Amino acid sequence: MLDLLQAYTGCPTTGLQFLALPRETLLLHPSLDSIIILNARTLAFLRALTFWEVFPGTRHIAGSVSCLTIDSGMKLVVASMASRVAVWSLSTAGGYQVHDSWRLHSSLVLPQEQEVTALDCKSGLLAVGTQSSLSVYTLILENDLPTWSRKWTYPTKSLARVRFSPSLMYIATTSTHDTIVRLHLTTSGRRTQVIPHPRPVSDIRWRNPGTHAQNRNDDPILYTTTTDGTLRVFLSVLDAPQRVQLHAALDAASSIPLSSQLNSLEGDGRMISSSVFPLDRDAVLSMLKGVSGGAQSAEEDARSRRVREIAEEGWDLFLRVLADGSLVVQAVANIDRRPPTLLKQFTLLQSPPGLLPSPPPAHLYVLPAPSDPGTLTLVTSPPLAAYVLSPLPFFDARADGLRLVARGADQILQDPREAVDHSRREVVRFVRTPEGEGVGAVYADGSGEVWCLKRGGGGLQRRGKWRVSEEADKVDQVVVLDGGTCFVTYASQAGRLTLHTPAPATLSVPPLVALFSLPVPSSSPTSLSRTILAVTETHTILVIYANLSPEPALAIRLESSLPLPTPPRMILPVDPMAWSGTRGEATAMSADAHDTLLSVSEDGELAFWVPENGLLDLLSGEVKQMNGVKANGTKPNGTVAHGDTQSSGWRCTGRVRTGRKGLSRAACSSAKKSVLVVPTPEGEELTIWDSKTSEFSSGLEYQELLSSSDPINDLDWTATPDAQSILAIGFAHHVELLAQQRMTYYDDTPGWGRCHTIDIGRTFPHPIGDSIWLARGSLLVGAGHHLCIFGQPKSKTGDERNESLFEFVARQNGPLDDYHPQMMLQCLLWEKIELVKQIIVNLAKNLESGRSPWEWQRLPLENFFKKDEVVKAAHASRKPQYSLLFSEPEMQNDDDEDPFSRSVVEHLIERLEENPLPHLTPNEHASLLVLIQTALEIEEQRRALDTNGVRYLISMRAYYISHKRLSAPSTPTSGKTGTIDKRIRPRQRLRYRDMIWAFHSESQELLLSQSVAACSGKMTWSEARSLGVFLWLRSCESMKAHMEVVARNQYMAGDNRDPTACSLFYFALGKSKLMLGLWRQAAWHKEQSQMLKFLNNDFTQARWRTAALKNAFALLSKRRFEYAAAFFLLGGSLKDAVNVCIRNLDDFQLAVAIARVVEGGDDGPILQALLKDTVLPVAFRDGNRWLASWAFWLLHRRDLAVRILLTPLQDVASVLDVRITAIGDPHYDDPSLALLFSQLKSRTLQTAKGTSEISGRTEFNFVLQIARVFCRMGCHVLALDLLRSWSFQRPSVVIPGRKPLAQTEPPSPVSTRLALEPALRHRASVFIDMDPVTAPSTRSTSPVSNVVDLGAQPPKEPEKEEGDTIARKAGLGSLMKTAKQNVSVPEFDMNAFF
């Protein structure tokens, strides 16, 4: 999703080191305090090793790694800084995982005055050269720890290079003060030979005989290179093998043909400088033999003749790079043969010029390529570059034989001459341009650099830098303008702003705490002035103009302040990354004016501010006369103009009361999402707030407590093209990306979730200084002196394109496809059955077409706005027409048949089971199949099942599907991302919301049979409780019959047929004699004889009822609670049985079930007390409005059953005579609340009364809140349909005996149960379920009550009744009077049915 595109880790200035692994070759070079590890072929960054990992005391010392060497055999990396030596090892246990397999191996500390100047390590031997000595150390184990033991020391001066011979018998050294190469014995350190050179020695190398040597011996062969570009070959003397003598010299004159020598001379006649490098013999010969052996045809054999000859003869090759970038390959033959006089040297080829950059590189290496054995990798430095060397065209002197594949990332970012300055490279802060195309970095010493983002977002290009010469010039803040072409810095100690242009300009300003720029107005893109906003320590806002040309200048145009009652804690800019418009296009009264500033008060109140009137024009770049202020921003006397108290120029667009105090960090996104960080004793609390608040939403969208051991270092927002916000939270070693998550109907999902984590702790030991978003979703991370750009990698041709971050966020929170199960589910819940059928048919057509999902045809938007009645009427008009009474229908087109049929659905399900849709989790895929099958059953049973029954049926099936999926060993993963879908959580029961749909359904018998079928025909109490059967059944006879079924299944569930498992239910039904028969069959039970004797008694007598109660208390003491409740029922004490269910079994559903069955209805005192004392407090504690509405309905307070859906819980609690000890979260994030409210608000006179006490403004805000919830669920089109179709009509009463004036629509002979539109339909009449005169008011002028304990809830001011509420009450009063006067029982009239 976000990969490392480029790492800027510094340019190598010394020689490179390489470590060959089975699958790749590593390139290592020092960079300040680090060792950088790259892939030698691609130069891709792999890891950084820091010296202070071994010596923590060097963390803040301005030193650099001076020497680096590699032990290829033991996989050791040895580095030195001053007098310290650190060693790392690459473990082979993890299969050479470069990120994780580096371990600290050992260390070595020399005397402080002995600064290490040269290193070499081979096979456990370490040669250390200092300013005054040469020492050799051997590796030993001391207390199971690797330790370096000094073998010998030889005094010498200023060593520059140390090289072990391949046989480890000799050591070759050079020094900086002379031109001599010295040879020492490894065993004793004795110097054996001194080899003088006419020029300073630039490199020494021992020839490695390798596996291709013709004469295997330990004779030393040494190559030396001097600064004039001459390479000398020294071979051992025959009679004195410990000494070497010169046998060949390859200089520039001998390598260049005579025809080219004239072009290679400088003006004074000297040869132009060139560089010569020996090529790795093993790598070259292995590759050449492999290539020549594969040639088959005559043409290929002709091209590879020279390659085969080189491989067979085993020549040693040397590559010379000339000043014009051309290459000359020289060969030396017979080095392995004796006598040495047989040596031959000749030039193999000269390539065209321009293959390598000019001047020639100081270092060049040829390496094997494990990923491509038929080629070699050629690496040069400086500048660092990697090339692919193809042998056939290269040795044929063709230009395509050497191809550039990678170039070092830091060629323009860092100056090698300044690399020793370690402290200034520590990144402290990043600042970007408003659009993210330019970025500046402030370093620890106050210096910094400015870059622009390359096209495509894959890299940076430096635009400028500033340096600090004095402490007063130390820069604290910077503003980057015009994509990095110019910038303004602020030095707090000097109190000065500086515009960095070819002619710098300065401006003295008061102490500043914030400095930022605004986007360039689109109305004046070529304007030569830019607007900068600055916030002073006194919270004054300065508007500063930066004129770029012709004369660069800075000027304060205006001073203003926010109209706040108290000084704010902080004033921050609103991130402008997703501003769709521009500042120049916004007007003071426009609805799309973007917020510019965010102020945070001491008590955590957020306020959003936009400029208005003259300030808006000023920020838009329009120079006008403002309140007596001249165009240059000064009054006639030259003083700066201050904003007046009457019009500050800033208008507040919204406030959010968070209640958070002591903020440490805050940031605001373009979409007005604000993140706050508050330190607490338990850790750091991170909260995300939305600016849209109402009585239904506090604005809090996300809350998390983070450990204080890893504090938050920075916060930064970016925006997707569809204006969704992504938050980057920076920690010490990783950055977490948070994005909004789509809400789901069945699972509780947090509003925000981690979509990606960038962990650089495995690659960069330095802590992160800052991270910032750039344009096109790129993230720049600064760790120490390293910079990393993360972004979407470019997919290679033919490879499957990876999903980008923006695409992932859009999939997680953007609008859903028509066929997504959540969209289809909401359409079914909101009675859009015909639309769901169209979606299913369209999905089947798209699958049959064979096109990719990106090319599928979508349903027109207007289809979502049509009522089912309209769709069915249009479909009915296409049915066959009859010309005569008994004639055949006139079938004009076969397409008139309904495309939604069982065959279509079954075929679609088969295809989906074989090939699931992309980007659907396994749970979503299973839900889609269930919804398609359910839509078919609804169509086939539409006369028997009403809409509320459909809603319950869908929820019940989704519940069982979820449990079936979660019974798998592991949780399903989300698509191709491989991340665990945390939204799939097991539930113990259906939500009360789903149970209430069944409670208000008129198809309860059918729902009961479907519920029993879902339980495989054997519903026990646990299943009945999970489905809420005894909560939603209304018929007392049905409850009794079903309780007997549950009792029988409880008895049959176990293999032993235990009568105690069903005693509670049978005793509730009053069937003690049946229990006696069951006990007679339980011969295995140890209590059989006692129970048979006890149940034979007559429990209508008080004596035996008392005995049953005594046994119940005895069972309580034995903690046999369910059996105790059964004996309480046997003893006639329903209240005690209910108390046991609540207090001991914690099962209020069981208590409700036995109370409703024993009392024979819903009006019994035990049930009423249970609802008031248990159910309602639980509902208020959990914020469950559905459960509270159900309880109020059974309590015959149906006005409150409606009000509880919208009214704040504390307001409802204030009018109750029930003690509410705690009130939970309001839970207004359920769109079905609006669905139930539209159903109940005019069903009865009581509900109409409750509706009248809800103000119009409250209902309006409630509908807006539900629309936002729809958008959060990805159902944007349903949100639009809700807003355009919601009805605010009030209920009315039809007076018996009075006929309507006109019939608005003809009666339909077809049942319209499934075609109801509760949000649109105006109910013609209401059911009168109250006395219109004596009905009390449920609305209280003040919510304060003595019996309500609101805990930590803030006190609420007494609310005033709105005008529309008073009008509603007046209208309801006349409605009640009309109902009271006209209510009568009409006589039975058969004609009323026709």
UniProtKB/TrEMBL annotation:
Bias (Basic and acidic residues): 1356-1367
A family per Pfam: Rav1p_C
Domain RAVE complex protein Rav1 C-terminal: 645-1282
Region (Disordered): 196-220, 630-650, 1335-1367
Record-given protein name: WD repeat-containing protein
Composition bias, Polar residues: 1335-1345
PANTHER family reported in the protein's UniProt record: RABCONNECTIN-3A, RABCONNECTIN-RELATED
UniProt cross-references to Gene3D superfamilies, sorted A to Z: YVTN repeat-like/Quinoprotein amine dehydrogenase
InterPro entries per record: DmX-like/RAVE_component (IPR052208), Quinoprot_gluc/sorb_DH_b-prop (IPR011041), Rav1p_C (IPR022033), WD40/YVTN_repeat-like_dom_sf (IPR015943), WD40_repeat_dom_sf (IPR036322), WD40_rpt (IPR001680)
